[in-house]
User: Fold Ornithine carbamoyltransferase from Candidatus Limadaptatus stercoripullorum.
Amino acid sequence: MKNLLKLMDLTDKEIIEILNLADQLKFEKKNGIPHRLLEGKVLGLIFEKSSTRTRVSFEVGMFDLGGMSLFLSSRDLQIGRGEAVQDTARVLSRYLDGIMIRTYAQEEVEALAKFGTIPIINGLTDYCHPCQVLADLMTIREIKGNFRGRKLCYIGDGNNMTNSLIVGGIKLGMQVAVACPKGYEPDAALMKWAAENGEFSCSEDVLGEASDADVLYTDVWASMGQEQEAEERKKVFKQYQINDKVMNVAKSDAIVLHCLPAHREEEITSAVFEKHSREIFEEAENRLHAQKAVLVKCLRG
Ligand code: CP
Ligand code: NVA
Assistant:
Protein backbone atom coordinates (compact mmCIF):
# COMPACT_ATOMS: atom_id res chain seq x y z
CA MET A 1 0.00 0.00 0.00
CA LYS A 2 1.59 3.28 -1.08
CA ASN A 3 -1.07 5.92 -0.38
CA LEU A 4 -4.22 6.30 1.67
CA LEU A 5 -6.34 8.60 -0.47
CA LYS A 6 -9.74 7.01 0.26
CA LEU A 7 -11.02 3.72 1.74
CA MET A 8 -12.46 2.64 -1.61
CA ASP A 9 -8.87 2.07 -2.78
CA LEU A 10 -8.28 -0.60 -0.11
CA THR A 11 -9.45 -4.21 -0.16
CA ASP A 12 -11.27 -5.61 2.88
CA LYS A 13 -8.13 -7.67 3.53
CA GLU A 14 -5.94 -4.54 3.53
CA ILE A 15 -8.31 -2.82 5.95
CA ILE A 16 -8.18 -5.80 8.32
CA GLU A 17 -4.36 -5.86 8.10
CA ILE A 18 -4.26 -2.18 9.13
CA LEU A 19 -6.62 -2.89 12.06
CA ASN A 20 -4.53 -5.88 13.18
CA LEU A 21 -1.35 -3.82 13.10
CA ALA A 22 -3.10 -1.00 14.94
CA ASP A 23 -4.16 -3.44 17.69
CA GLN A 24 -0.58 -4.67 17.97
CA LEU A 25 0.85 -1.13 18.13
CA LYS A 26 -1.72 -0.22 20.80
CA PHE A 27 -0.73 -3.25 22.87
CA GLU A 28 2.97 -2.40 22.50
CA LYS A 29 2.43 1.27 23.41
CA LYS A 30 0.40 0.32 26.51
CA ASN A 31 3.11 -2.10 27.59
CA GLY A 32 6.08 0.18 26.94
CA ILE A 33 7.39 -1.97 24.08
CA PRO A 34 9.17 0.32 21.61
CA HIS A 35 8.35 0.08 17.91
CA ARG A 36 10.69 2.43 16.07
CA LEU A 37 9.60 1.20 12.65
CA LEU A 38 10.08 4.53 10.86
CA GLU A 39 13.47 5.51 12.24
CA GLY A 40 14.87 8.52 10.38
CA LYS A 41 11.70 9.13 8.32
CA VAL A 42 10.13 12.59 8.05
CA LEU A 43 6.42 13.18 7.51
CA GLY A 44 5.05 16.55 6.35
CA LEU A 45 1.62 17.52 7.70
CA ILE A 46 -0.19 19.99 5.42
CA PHE A 47 -3.24 21.56 7.06
CA GLU A 48 -5.63 23.81 5.14
CA LYS A 49 -8.27 23.33 7.87
CA SER A 50 -8.16 23.21 11.70
CA SER A 51 -7.41 20.04 13.65
CA THR A 52 -6.86 18.78 17.18
CA ARG A 53 -6.87 14.97 16.95
CA THR A 54 -5.42 14.49 13.49
CA ARG A 55 -2.50 16.84 14.01
CA VAL A 56 -1.56 15.65 17.49
CA SER A 57 -1.98 11.95 16.76
CA PHE A 58 0.11 12.10 13.58
CA GLU A 59 2.86 14.07 15.35
CA VAL A 60 2.94 11.77 18.37
CA GLY A 61 2.64 8.76 16.07
CA MET A 62 5.73 9.71 14.08
CA PHE A 63 7.65 10.32 17.30
CA ASP A 64 6.63 6.89 18.67
CA LEU A 65 7.74 5.28 15.41
CA GLY A 66 11.18 6.87 15.62
CA GLY A 67 10.62 9.46 12.91
CA MET A 68 9.68 13.10 12.99
CA SER A 69 6.99 15.33 11.56
CA LEU A 70 6.79 18.87 10.20
CA PHE A 71 3.60 20.86 10.70
CA LEU A 72 2.98 22.82 7.50
CA SER A 73 0.06 25.23 7.70
CA SER A 74 -1.28 26.41 4.36
CA ARG A 75 -1.25 29.89 5.90
CA ASP A 76 2.55 29.73 5.78
CA LEU A 77 3.16 27.54 2.73
CA GLN A 78 3.34 29.04 -0.76
CA ILE A 79 0.43 26.72 -1.63
CA GLY A 80 -1.72 29.20 0.32
CA ARG A 81 -0.56 31.93 -2.10
CA GLY A 82 -1.37 29.92 -5.17
CA GLU A 83 1.72 27.78 -5.86
CA ALA A 84 0.52 24.84 -7.93
CA VAL A 85 -0.07 21.60 -6.07
CA GLN A 86 1.84 19.76 -8.84
CA ASP A 87 4.95 21.82 -8.05
CA THR A 88 4.52 21.56 -4.28
CA ALA A 89 4.23 17.79 -4.66
CA ARG A 90 7.42 17.52 -6.72
CA VAL A 91 9.41 19.74 -4.36
CA LEU A 92 8.24 18.15 -1.11
CA SER A 93 8.89 14.68 -2.57
CA ARG A 94 12.60 15.56 -2.59
CA TYR A 95 12.69 16.45 1.13
CA LEU A 96 10.14 14.24 2.85
CA ASP A 97 9.31 10.53 3.17
CA GLY A 98 5.54 11.07 3.22
CA ILE A 99 2.82 13.71 3.39
CA MET A 100 -0.43 13.83 5.31
CA ILE A 101 -2.77 16.47 3.93
CA ARG A 102 -6.06 17.90 5.25
CA THR A 103 -7.81 20.07 2.70
CA TYR A 104 -11.09 20.83 0.89
CA ALA A 105 -11.04 19.17 -2.52
CA GLN A 106 -10.36 15.44 -2.83
CA GLU A 107 -8.83 16.28 -6.23
CA GLU A 108 -6.01 18.16 -4.48
CA VAL A 109 -5.06 15.03 -2.53
CA GLU A 110 -5.23 12.92 -5.68
CA ALA A 111 -3.06 15.50 -7.52
CA LEU A 112 -0.42 15.39 -4.77
CA ALA A 113 -0.29 11.61 -5.16
CA LYS A 114 -0.14 11.86 -8.94
CA PHE A 115 2.69 14.39 -9.12
CA GLY A 116 4.59 13.44 -5.97
CA THR A 117 6.74 10.36 -5.61
CA ILE A 118 6.21 9.79 -1.87
CA PRO A 119 3.23 8.28 0.03
CA ILE A 120 0.25 10.60 0.49
CA ILE A 121 -2.22 10.15 3.35
CA ASN A 122 -5.63 11.86 3.34
CA GLY A 123 -6.23 13.51 6.72
CA LEU A 124 -9.74 14.68 5.70
CA THR A 125 -11.26 16.30 2.64
CA ASP A 126 -14.82 17.47 1.97
CA TYR A 127 -15.33 14.03 0.37
CA CYS A 128 -13.97 11.61 2.96
CA HIS A 129 -12.06 10.96 6.20
CA PRO A 130 -10.42 7.54 5.88
CA CYS A 131 -8.06 7.82 8.89
CA GLN A 132 -10.99 8.52 11.20
CA VAL A 133 -12.99 5.56 9.92
CA LEU A 134 -10.06 3.16 10.37
CA ALA A 135 -9.99 4.24 14.04
CA ASP A 136 -13.78 3.83 14.20
CA LEU A 137 -13.60 0.30 12.79
CA MET A 138 -10.81 -0.53 15.23
CA THR A 139 -13.03 0.68 18.10
CA ILE A 140 -16.07 -1.25 16.89
CA ARG A 141 -14.05 -4.49 16.69
CA GLU A 142 -12.43 -3.83 20.07
CA ILE A 143 -15.80 -3.45 21.79
CA LYS A 144 -18.11 -5.67 19.72
CA GLY A 145 -15.61 -8.34 18.67
CA ASN A 146 -16.67 -8.57 15.01
CA PHE A 147 -18.29 -6.73 12.08
CA ARG A 148 -20.33 -9.16 10.00
CA GLY A 149 -24.06 -8.70 10.48
CA ARG A 150 -23.66 -5.76 12.86
CA LYS A 151 -25.79 -2.71 12.11
CA LEU A 152 -24.10 0.69 11.92
CA CYS A 153 -26.50 3.64 11.86
CA TYR A 154 -25.30 7.15 11.04
CA ILE A 155 -27.61 10.05 11.87
CA GLY A 156 -27.03 13.54 10.47
CA ASP A 157 -25.35 15.20 7.51
CA GLY A 158 -24.32 12.98 4.60
CA ASN A 159 -20.79 14.36 4.71
CA ASN A 160 -17.14 13.19 4.53
CA MET A 161 -17.63 11.00 7.62
CA THR A 162 -20.74 9.35 6.19
CA ASN A 163 -19.02 8.62 2.88
CA SER A 164 -16.10 6.86 4.58
CA LEU A 165 -18.30 5.02 7.09
CA ILE A 166 -20.42 3.63 4.25
CA VAL A 167 -17.34 2.30 2.45
CA GLY A 168 -15.63 0.91 5.55
CA GLY A 169 -18.82 -0.60 6.98
CA ILE A 170 -19.94 -2.28 3.76
CA LYS A 171 -16.45 -3.59 2.95
CA LEU A 172 -16.31 -5.34 6.33
CA GLY A 173 -19.81 -6.82 6.05
CA MET A 174 -21.76 -4.47 8.30
CA GLN A 175 -25.30 -3.34 7.58
CA VAL A 176 -25.13 0.44 7.07
CA ALA A 177 -28.17 2.66 7.64
CA VAL A 178 -28.14 6.44 7.19
CA ALA A 179 -30.77 8.88 8.43
CA CYS A 180 -30.43 12.34 6.89
CA PRO A 181 -32.64 15.10 5.51
CA LYS A 182 -33.48 15.21 1.80
CA GLY A 183 -30.83 17.13 -0.09
CA TYR A 184 -28.10 16.24 2.44
CA GLU A 185 -27.51 12.63 1.40
CA PRO A 186 -24.05 11.06 1.14
CA ASP A 187 -22.29 10.79 -2.24
CA ALA A 188 -24.72 9.28 -4.79
CA ALA A 189 -22.14 7.00 -6.44
CA LEU A 190 -21.11 5.60 -3.04
CA MET A 191 -24.74 4.92 -2.08
CA LYS A 192 -25.25 3.03 -5.35
CA TRP A 193 -22.07 1.02 -4.73
CA ALA A 194 -23.18 0.26 -1.16
CA ALA A 195 -26.61 -0.97 -2.24
CA GLU A 196 -24.99 -3.24 -4.83
CA ASN A 197 -22.35 -4.59 -2.49
CA GLY A 198 -24.08 -5.02 0.85
CA GLU A 199 -27.02 -4.11 3.03
CA PHE A 200 -27.55 -0.34 2.81
CA SER A 201 -30.41 2.07 3.42
CA CYS A 202 -30.78 5.84 3.54
CA SER A 203 -33.95 7.77 4.44
CA GLU A 204 -35.33 10.62 6.53
CA ASP A 205 -36.71 8.13 9.08
CA VAL A 206 -34.38 8.50 12.09
CA LEU A 207 -36.07 5.90 14.32
CA GLY A 208 -36.55 3.46 11.44
CA GLU A 209 -32.88 3.58 10.44
CA ALA A 210 -31.70 3.41 14.07
CA SER A 211 -33.83 0.45 15.02
CA ASP A 212 -31.79 -2.53 16.28
CA ALA A 213 -28.50 -0.74 15.59
CA ASP A 214 -25.33 -2.04 17.26
CA VAL A 215 -23.44 1.20 16.59
CA LEU A 216 -24.89 4.72 16.44
CA TYR A 217 -22.73 7.41 14.88
CA THR A 218 -23.11 11.12 14.37
CA ASP A 219 -21.06 14.16 13.38
CA VAL A 220 -21.51 17.94 13.33
CA TRP A 221 -24.36 19.42 11.28
CA ALA A 222 -22.03 22.00 9.69
CA SER A 223 -18.56 20.82 8.67
CA MET A 224 -15.42 22.89 8.27
CA GLY A 225 -15.97 25.20 5.31
CA GLN A 226 -19.76 25.35 5.88
CA GLU A 227 -19.68 27.88 8.71
CA GLN A 228 -21.89 30.33 6.81
CA GLU A 229 -24.63 27.66 6.53
CA ALA A 230 -24.55 26.80 10.25
CA GLU A 231 -27.73 28.68 11.27
CA GLU A 232 -29.77 27.31 8.36
CA ARG A 233 -28.47 23.80 9.07
CA LYS A 234 -29.57 24.01 12.72
CA LYS A 235 -33.17 24.21 11.43
CA VAL A 236 -32.79 21.50 8.77
CA PHE A 237 -31.11 18.98 11.10
CA LYS A 238 -33.15 19.60 14.28
CA GLN A 239 -34.62 16.06 14.24
CA TYR A 240 -31.32 14.37 13.34
CA GLN A 241 -29.96 13.93 16.82
CA ILE A 242 -28.77 10.97 18.90
CA ASN A 243 -30.95 11.23 22.01
CA ASP A 244 -32.77 8.91 24.40
CA LYS A 245 -35.55 8.26 21.89
CA VAL A 246 -32.99 6.99 19.37
CA MET A 247 -31.16 4.96 22.02
CA ASN A 248 -34.44 3.29 22.96
CA VAL A 249 -34.93 1.81 19.48
CA ALA A 250 -31.30 0.69 19.07
CA LYS A 251 -30.04 -2.57 20.64
CA SER A 252 -29.83 -2.34 24.42
CA ASP A 253 -26.04 -2.75 24.25
CA ALA A 254 -25.55 -0.32 21.35
CA ILE A 255 -22.43 1.82 21.41
CA VAL A 256 -22.25 5.47 20.38
CA LEU A 257 -19.36 6.88 18.37
CA HIS A 258 -18.56 10.47 17.34
CA CYS A 259 -15.48 11.56 15.39
CA LEU A 260 -15.36 14.80 17.42
CA PRO A 261 -15.45 17.75 17.83
CA ALA A 262 -19.03 17.39 19.18
CA HIS A 263 -21.71 20.04 19.50
CA ARG A 264 -23.73 18.98 22.50
CA GLU A 265 -27.52 19.40 22.22
CA GLU A 266 -27.18 19.64 18.45
CA GLU A 267 -26.27 16.29 16.83
CA ILE A 268 -26.09 14.53 20.23
CA THR A 269 -27.55 15.28 23.67
CA SER A 270 -25.15 15.86 26.56
CA ALA A 271 -26.75 12.97 28.43
CA VAL A 272 -26.11 10.43 25.65
CA PHE A 273 -22.62 11.83 25.00
CA GLU A 274 -21.58 11.49 28.65
CA LYS A 275 -23.16 8.08 29.05
CA HIS A 276 -21.13 6.83 26.08
CA SER A 277 -18.01 8.89 26.66
CA ARG A 278 -15.93 5.77 27.34
CA GLU A 279 -16.44 4.56 23.77
CA ILE A 280 -16.11 8.02 22.25
CA PHE A 281 -12.77 8.78 23.90
CA GLU A 282 -11.42 5.28 23.22
CA GLU A 283 -12.30 6.02 19.58
CA ALA A 284 -10.35 9.30 19.81
CA GLU A 285 -7.36 7.47 21.30
CA ASN A 286 -7.53 4.87 18.55
CA ARG A 287 -6.79 7.60 15.99
CA LEU A 288 -3.21 7.40 17.24
CA HIS A 289 -2.88 3.63 16.91
CA ALA A 290 -4.73 3.37 13.58
CA GLN A 291 -2.72 6.18 12.04
CA LYS A 292 0.54 4.65 13.15
CA ALA A 293 -0.52 1.46 11.36
CA VAL A 294 -1.29 3.46 8.20
CA LEU A 295 2.08 5.22 8.45
CA VAL A 296 3.93 1.93 8.78
CA LYS A 297 2.03 0.38 5.85
CA CYS A 298 2.57 3.40 3.58
CA LEU A 299 6.08 4.54 4.53
CA ARG A 300 7.67 1.09 4.80
CA GLY A 301 5.96 -0.17 1.64
N1 CP B 1 -11.94 13.79 14.21
C1 CP B 1 -10.98 14.62 13.75
O1 CP B 1 -10.48 14.48 12.63
O2 CP B 1 -10.62 15.59 14.63
P1 CP B 1 -9.73 16.86 14.32
O3 CP B 1 -10.52 17.73 13.36
O4 CP B 1 -9.53 17.51 15.64
O5 CP B 1 -8.45 16.42 13.69
N1 NVA C 1 -17.45 16.52 9.09
C1 NVA C 1 -16.49 17.18 9.95
C2 NVA C 1 -15.52 16.18 10.48
C3 NVA C 1 -14.50 16.74 11.43
C4 NVA C 1 -13.53 15.71 11.91
C5 NVA C 1 -15.79 18.28 9.17
O1 NVA C 1 -15.43 18.04 8.00
O2 NVA C 1 -15.61 19.37 9.71
In short: The pocket of phosphoric acid mono(formamide)ester (ligand 1) is lined by residues 51-54, 124, 132, 259-260 (CB under 6 Å). The chain has a mean pLDDT of 97.
